[in-house]
Description:
The protein is an alpha/beta fold and 341 residues long. The protein has 9 helices and 14 strands. The chain has 2 domains: 17-50; 58-338, Purple Acid Phosphatase, chain A, domain 2 (4-Layer Sandwich), CATH 3.60.21.
Amino acid sequence: xxxxxxxxxxxxxxxxxxxxxxxxxxxxxxxxxxxxxxxxxxxxxxxxxxxxxxxxxxxxxxxxxxxxxxxxxxxxxxxxxxxxxxxxxxxxxxxxxxxxxxxxxxxxxxxxxxxxxxxxxxxxxxxxxxxxxxxxxxxxxxxxxxxxxxxxxxxxxxxxxxxxxxxxxxxxxxxxxxxxxxxxxxxxxxxxxxxxxxxxxxxxxxxxxxxxxxxxxxxxxxxxxxxxxxxxxxxxxxxxxxxxxxxxxxxxxxxxxxxxxxxxxxxxxxxxxxxxxxxxxxxxxxxxxxxxxxxxxxxxxxxxxxxxxxxxxxxxxxxxxxxxxxxxxxxxxxxxxxxxx
Length: 341
C-alpha cells in the first residue's frame, strides 16, 4: 500500500513547511559559490605549479642600438635560473639553447635556489659556455633562500617597500651558497664577470671576428652590493659597442647607467611579476621599478639621456614558491641592429 507523504495535501492542512526543506535550494546556492571559487583556485594553483612553471619558451626581441654600418648581433640573455637539484627538464632546455648559436651570452644572475645546485647549473650551461659570455650575480647566487609567504610581496607594494633591507630581506637566508665554484667555472670558460667592474668581450664567431664589446656591470642592488662610483664615467672609447648589466633593475642603477650614456641595459630579478593577472599584468616587481616595465623591452630616461632597458622574466622561481601564472619562464634572444638615427 502506498502511504501519503507526511506533508501531502493542502498548505493549510500540512502546517508550516520545515526550513530544512524550504531553504534547500538556497543553501545549495550558498555553498556552491564558495566551493566553485575554491575549485577554480585549486585548478589555478595546479596549473601554475604543475604546468606553466615548466612551460619554458624563447622570446625574441630586436633593439636598434648598434652604430651605423655594424652587422646585427644575436645576444642570448638568461636570468633567474634558480636551479634546484633534480630539475631535469629545465637543464635539458637550457642545454638545447646552444643550438641558437648566439654571438654571445649574457647571464644576469640568480642562478641558484639550492646550495647543491652548482654542478647542475654548470652542466646545464656547459654548451653555452662554449660561446663568448658575460655575467653578474644576484642575491640568490650568494645566499640560500628561505621560506616566505608570497603574500608579503603584495603587502610591501602597498607600504611602498621593495626589498630595500639588504641581507635582512625576509626572502634571503643567512646560509651562503658555494658561488665561488660557479664564478671560477664561468671565468675559466672566458665569461667576463662584472661585479662593480668593467671588461671587454671580443667576439670570434663567423662574421663577428674583431668586434669588441665594452661591458660595465654592477653587483646586486637588491642587497645593496652595487657600487656605481667604482665604474662611473660612461662607455669606454675604442669599443664597437657598450653594454650595461645589473641583476635587479633598481632606479638608482638605471638612472646612473642612463645618465652616463649607455645605449642598452640588461637586467633580471623581477620574474616578470611571476604571478600575474590575465589581461592586466604584474602586481609587483620586487624592486622600485614600475610594473609597466616588469619584463621585456622598454626605455629609461635620466638627466636628458635615454637608454633601452630589457628586463628578463627569467626561467626559474625561488624553490619555496615554485609557481608561475600568466608569466611563463623564458630566455630571450635579443638581436641588436643598427640605430636608425
